[in-house]
User: Fold this.
Amino acid sequence: MSSLKTHHQVHWLTGQFCKGGSESMYRRSIESRVRFESCLYLTVAALIFGMFAISDYYLLGITREFYLLLAMRIGVVSLCLLLAFVIGRWGGYSSKVWLHALPLWLLATGIILIVPLRPESLPTQVTAVVVATMAFYLLIPNLLTVAALASFYLNIGFLAFAVLFAEIGPMAMLRIALLLIMANVVGFFALLRLESLQRKQFALLHEERDQNQQLHEEIAHRKSLETQLRVVAERDALTGLNNRGHFMNLAEEVLRRSQLERVPFGFFMIDVDHFKTINDTWGHRYGDWVLTKIAEVCVQSLRPTDVIGRFGGEEFVVALPNTGPDDAHIVAERLKKQVADLPLHEEMEKLCPSVTIGIAIAQTEDVDLETLITRADQMLYSGKRNGRNRVVMYDNEVEE
Assistant:
């Protein structure tokens, strides 16, 4: 609330924001509404002003004064309609306040000019001036300062012409002045209250919109953090593959689906050969680089539906849904060959990277993931005992 008071203070006399930026933003926000309402109410006011030509005819008849009044009314109505059209197309308080002020001054001038042409109808004209004053404040949309200046011009001009052409006495002038002052006071404070309330409402809505935007940004930030945390929780930091825990969850799902659909399920246990020698010879930095490259080869060799993860150390595991023994053997051989063809650093040119792969296949029997891991692990160690760089299938335990 203190922030709202600081950034959107409303001036006690004008009803406008104290800060120019806030006031400009408010005026732009109501521009379309102001155009429509100004065009509509100005057209109505101009037509009402023109309709009084009928009363001029009954009071003056076909006289020179009637023709002068008729010409003046036609001129005022025509200019007001033209201004209404212009305001409807290009109006707006944000940049053209003068355009919205012109119709008020034009109508005020027309009302004032009635006095010298119809001085005998002064009581009726006093009522018309009071109504016009209230209309300037409350009917035709405008800024308080613009409406006040136009009303003061109308009232002072009307009093001056009444004294000059209607020859009213001091007491009559005082009564008319008090009546006009009362109309201005009521109109001024009514519009001041309306302008202040509208701007305070705008400030509250703007503040709420800012808070909603901040809330959306905070939600987006938290979602981003949640995504990052989920990646940290599910991914291996070095290779970017699924970590052991997340892989086990995904593989369990894939195995269960395969069993429901009664399709074969393949499982690889992959181990990097002589990895300790790589670390001891070239250092852990190059050892990590080799693991990263092998992980990339695995991802490139597998299908999007396959699930791969780092099981620990230099071991990787792969779950292959809808994969029988023959297809699993082909994929494993391709993967083994691509690892052997890896481009290496110049310092490691003597290294011949290789992997040993143990394969276990679940056909339609009810076997769990732990059993498959055990079988694939047995084949992996069988391959290592028999020289490494091999693919060993559990089904027939034939070493390739």
